[in-house]
Task: structure prediction
Amino acid sequence: MENDYFSVEAILAENQKIQCTFKHEIPNMGHLGGGTERDIAILSKLQLPMWLAYVIIYSDWAEFNIPQPFGLKVRNALKAEATSVRLSNLVGAGGMWYGFGKMIMDMLSDEQASEMSEMMTKAFKGRVVELVDQAQHFAAIGPGGAGGSGSDVAASFREGLDATEREIFTLAQASAKRMKKWHEESDKAKQ
Amino acid sequence: MALPVHLRDSVTPQELEMIACQQLIEIVPLIAMEKTAFISGAYGPLRPPSKAKLPLWMAVNLKLKKKCHIIAPDWLNVEHLQDRLAQEVAKPDAFSDLPFRFSEISKVLLDVASDDLENPDQLRSLLKDLREARQAKSREGLKHLDHSELGLTGLSSMEINEIRPFFVQSMNVLTKIARSSET
Result:
């Protein structure tokens, strides 16, 4: 997920769109907005993907607002109870909420960036304990039995995980499964 | 890399068991053996009924062929483990002092030589309680995870191996999202 040119996750995370307000008029680039205009008028708002917006904002042709997945409502929900927020809903299929947030953070000023970083760090720390607990619980049941077990809260937490959290969940579950298997092995059969 | 994901970052429990089996343990041999050279060193001679020190792998091998009795290491008895368990419960911030590879050695001995140990069932349940108490503490440690360091002194080799994959991955994620606040 780092600024790794070949990382598939980074490429997917960059595909999120953010809203940019153009500060200058740009002739003949209207197709970026997906509409039928030929030019981009000054102060027009367009939804652009991150990998494009990054360059445009750095070159100071547009400004952008912090997009909705990191807006005030989400921030407050995370502050209230980090585990109840469904991060995968905020960023679409195969969500990369943390990856997206990191990219936005890199473009913001220091003060706003450290605010975002703190919000993401607190959210992550709050969710990771619940994540590992559930993973170890699931190791005992195995991948097939995931359907009927667990209360609704636990199941909806699992569905609301973003891609980075899912990776950690898999690691913890696999590790716990291996331990359990080892404990039940016996040498007596071997001679 | 050709290794499957779970082998890239951590060791398997079976490998740790093998490493732990290199430790020396005392046995009472039932057969006689001359001083024999092995790859790791020369062991013997075995003169029953006097005790001898052998690597655990060899002791297990002889035991399975019913050629020796294994003597439990001094920490593998009920009083000692009960004492450790009380320490675990009394100190919620620290781990009690147990041999680094106690989990592997105790599993092997309970498996193969349970008739040489006193109260194997009670030992099993004490070990399980110890494991659970320590797991709860490392879970607490997870809450205080930082992107740069975390101190959990006194963890045993199997416990470290168990938590390594997701602890390290979590720290990676934290490093990525924390970076901006430090530049």
